[in-house]
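User: Hi! I'm a student and our assignment asks us to look at how structure tokens line up with a sequence. Could you show me two examples?

Assistant: Happy to help. In each example below, the sequence comes first and the structure tokens follow. Example one:
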Amino acid sequence: MSGKRDEGQAATELALVLPLLMLLALLLVQVTLVARDQILVVHAAREAAREAAVDPRPASIRKAAIRASGLKVGGLRTELSSEGGSSIVTVRVEYRSPTDVVLVGPLLPDIVVGAKAAMRSESGQPAAETSDEQKKMQEPRHSGANGASEGSERAWSGLTH
């Protein structure tokens, strides 16, 4: 008699657990997409630093970051700086990674990922700081979650021993 009562138990348990498993699988997909964006931002920062070493104009630096990463232009932000009188240029790239996976995206805010890269200026002269007006010309910073993971890379021109 207990065999007849337990007949549909496995199907009922599967029906209760399956939505949770699907939500976890979609969450894993979203985390993977954010991790991919982080890797692309690190690559974009390296390329932007290479460009800044040769041509410190903000427009050319931004174009190099976009060209190297393939990320959506609207969420990408670049910033150029130099340390005092040194000939090292530092580029910081931030990207607002959209959380748009079905069912999971609406539950999570967009995540800002960022990376920095530094390189010696090819001209040997100190790089000019980005002016406030040049910063306004760049993509505006988006408000949202700022729990960004940050990759940090330091690249130098020439060989190191």
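Example two works the same way, sequence first and then tokens:
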Amino acid sequence: MVFHRTEQNLLESNEWADYYVYRQGALMALPYTFDFDLTNGILRCRLNGQVTDEVLKDFFRTGAQHAIRIRPRAGVVDLTEVTSFDVSVQSIEKLARSTPVLQDPNLCRVIIAPSLEMYGMMRMFEIEGEATRPGIHVVHTEREAWAILSVAEPRFCALDMM
């Protein structure tokens, strides 16, 4: 990864907070990014690399902060770039039963889970969270997600550009 500014400058400015985490004395890229389609009101999160219980919980906390600030009309979680999904059933169940930050039952939430393992885990999340998140859909592809949201070509921009 190439930094245009030094790690010290990033740490001092706090500009790194949405993209990096400071662990064990090093600045590391977060395993997720958030962006927003202003036209359609879609908040999207793309997880990548290895996803663990800790990463998923941290993603939920960070996503909640963005959702409160932006108040999207829909949300998409994209797991396409995940290489390892080491999340326990207990974590999925606990997160599914938690109260959503945006409690609007009409809010459409879509999870893109291309692999069978992730798809199964996300279907469990959907079933366990049915009472609190009735507008959730689990799909295999981005194309299916956009069809559910009735969006032909979403145009996302990074949240720091808003």
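Here is something you could point out in your write-up. The helical segments are 7-13, 53-70, 89-97, 116-128, 142-148.
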